[in-house]
Amino acid sequence: MRSCFPWLLITTLFAGAPASPILGQEPMTADPGQEEPLRIFLDCWRCDMDHFRREVAFVSYVRDRMDAQVHVLVTSQETGAGGNEYTFNFIGLREFAGRDDTLAVASRPDDTDDETREDLVRVFKLGLVPFLAASEVGRGLDVTYRGPRGEAAVEHVDDPWDLWVFNLRVGGEVEGESLENSSAFDGSFSTNRTTEDLKMDFRASGEWDRRTIDFEEEGK
User: What is the rounded distance in angstroms from the CA atom of residue 69 to the CA atom of residue 36?
Assistant: First the structure.
């Protein structure tokens, strides 16, 4: 079942952080006077590692857990609805020892691969915040809220009709022959107004018919 709490999109505004190394390389060496990026050991065999490195480039990915400051273990299992639930375990190491957290996200059966990847990256960023908040990178982090997927933004619109809706319909028919002609007209009018507290509906209709026949005098 998909988690229903509002998603928080953690974005980074810090442009000076060095790019993360390719997974499998040694941790990057920070420039003198510059704080070293947070070292992450991402343990997720079903994740798109290249996508994670592109989208979360303000940390350093290491190949050895012993070199990491945070071990991120990602596990998954199928849900009854046909999707997958991914559980992120953030395990603090070294100076973060004892600081652990767990976050989960569930995909729907109709989710695309891109939607699933974005959900995983979003939860990954969210879980890193406590470890980054007091760092140089943390000073460039911001929090942006976006409603649950598919939620339409509510926009106030000025309505000069004050929620009243009017409907008018008019119809007619005219027929004519040498000795007979007829005409008919009909119409209807309705108006309604619906608010959270009250619903009003008024309707009116009418019709008019006329038929004329000329009788010739016998013998003419």
Answer: 11
Pairing outcome for strands 39-43 and 70-78: parallel
Structure tokens given for 219: 């013998």
pLDDT band for 151, please (50, 70, 90 cuts): low
The values of phi and psi at residue 118, to 5°, are -65, -40
Tens digit of pLDDT for each residue in 10-50?
333 333 344 333 344 444 444 545 678 899 999 988 788 89
Taking the whole predicted model, whether its pTM rises above 0.85 is answered as no
Confidence of residue 168 (pLDDT cuts 50, 70, 90): confident
To which residue do tokens 């273990």 refer? 73
Of 144, 119, 135, nearest in space to 40 by CA: 135
Any idea where the domains of the chain sit in the sequence?
8-145, 164-210
Cβ-based neighbours of 21, under 8 Å, separated by 6 or more: 27, 28, 60, 61
* CA 220 – CA 217 distance, rounded (Å): 6
Distance CA 132, CA 10 (A): 12
Q: What is the rounded distance in angstroms from the CA atom of residue 52 to the CA atom of residue 40? A: 12
Does domain 8-145 bear CATH number 1.10.1760? no
Integer Cα distance of 65 and 63 in angstroms: 7
